[in-house]
Amino acid sequence: MPAQTLDPEAPINGHVKPYKGKRRTTWYAKWRDQNGQHQKALGPAWSGKGAPPPGFLRKRDAEAKLHEILVDARRGQLRQQRTGLLFVEVAEAWYEWGCSERDWSASTRVGYRSILDAHLLPEFGHERLEKANSAQRIERWRKHLLKEQMPGGEARSSRTINKLLTALHGILEYAVKRRGLLTNEAAQVERLREATDSARFDFYTPEEIALIVATAAAGGHRDPKHPPVSETERELREEEDEQDGAIYLTAAHAGLRRSELLALLWEDIDFENDSIRVWEGYAAKQKGKPKSRKSRTVPMEEKVAKTLKQLKRRPRHTANKDHVFAGRDGSPLDGSALRRRYIRTLNAAGLRQLRFHDLRHTFGSLAINVASIVQVQAWMGHADIKTTMRYLHHKSRSDDARLLSAAFRTEKNKKPRQRAGTGGCRTQREPVAA
Hints:
By secondary structure, the chain is mostly helical. It has three domains: 13-75, no CATH class; 87-188, Tyrosine recombinase, N-terminal domain (DNA polymerase, domain 1, Orthogonal Bundle); 206-393, hpI Integrase, Chain A (Orthogonal Bundle), CATH 1.10.443. The chain has helices at 59-75, 87-100, 106-124, 129-132, 135-147, 158-178, 206-217, 231-254, 258-263, 302-311, 335-349, 358-367, 373-380, 385-389, 398-407, and strands at 13-20, 25-33, 36-44, 269-270, 275-278, 281-283, 286-288, 296-299. A three-stranded antiparallel sheet has the order 1-2-3, covered by helices on one side. Helix 2 packs antiparallel against helix 3, helix 7 packs across helix 11 (335-349) and helix 8 crosses helix 12 (358-367). It is elongated and about 100 Å long. The chain starts with 12 loop residues before the first strand and ends in a 27-residue tail after the last helix.
C-alpha cells in the first residue's frame, strides 16, 4: 500500500455526522490529520428517551469516541509516516522562523545559533527527523552530556543541559505544527533539577565599582611591554580606556545588559531629564530588540551623567546617531573583546572575578534598597517580576530587624506603657453614664 501524502499544515480536528440508511441511522466520525482525511463508522444512532441500549450511541457518545481518536492522533498512536526531512533542515527552518516571525532579540539569536552549531546539529543533524524524535534517543544524549567533561575538566551544569533540551523541544514542537511530525518526544524527557539558587550571586560594592572604573581609565588592562608607538596612538588609547571605564560604570549604575550598552546611541542619552532610553541590543554584529523585546527608560544617576558628559567631549563620534561606546571607526564595540579587557582590568585591580553580567546584578542588588520592586523591574526590563524578586534577598533588613527586636524584647527591658490622659497613674474606671 503506498504511503499517504503528508500535509504538514493540516490541523488535527474533526466532527461527527449521522448517516441515514435503509434500516437505521449510523454515527460516523470524520477527521483530518497530517496524513489526510479519514472516516469511520462509530455505531448505530439512538434517538429514543432514556439510556441507549448496548451498542447504540447518542450524539454526545459519538463525540466522545471522536475525541479519543483525535487524542490518539495527537499523541502519535497513529503510525508516523516518513516526513522525508532531516533534522538539520527542520532546525534551520525553526531558527529562521524564530528570527523573522518570533522577532528574537539579538542575544537570543546568538544563543540559539551557538546551541545549534555546537550541540544539536553535530548530534542530530544528519538523522531523519523521525529518528531524532525519540524519547529514548534524547535520554541517552542527556546522560552523555551529564558524564561528559568540559575542556577545563569541570562537569557541564544542569542549567546548561536544560537549555539544550529546551531548544530541542522548540525545534520538535515547530516540526509538529509545520512539518508533519505527530508528537514531540522531547516533552517526555524530564528536565534536570537545578541545584543553583538564582538568588545566590555575588556583586560588587560601590567602592569596588569605583576601583574598576579607575583601573580601566588608567589603562590597567594594557600590557606594558607594548607601549604606544606615537603620540596619536597614545591619545587614542587614552580615549579607549576612558570609554571602557564609562561602560563599566554605566553597566553597574544603570543596569544595562552588555548588548544594550553596545547598541546605545547618543540620541538615547537624555541629559535634560537624567535618563537613558534603551531601544535595541547588539550582539554578534547583529542589531535587534532588547532581550525583553520592549523598550524602557532607565534613570541616569549623577555619576553616570557626569561620566557620559565628559565622554561626549571627545573629538569624534558624538553626533546623535553615533554610538556612545564606539570603536575607532565609529562602529559598535566587539562584545568579546570588551569582555576580555574587563577580565584583565579585574586582575589589574586585584578584585575577584565576576562576570560582566554581574555588573547588572550589582545595580539590581543596590537599587532594591532604595526603590520598590516594581520600579526595579521596570528599570531592568524584566518581563516577569519573579526575575526581579531574586534581588529581594540582598535587600537590607536592618529596619525589619529593629521591628522584631522590639517585638521580642523581654518584660524586664520593656518601657511601661501609659494610658492616654492618665499621666502614667492608674485610676479606677469611672461608670459610664446611661
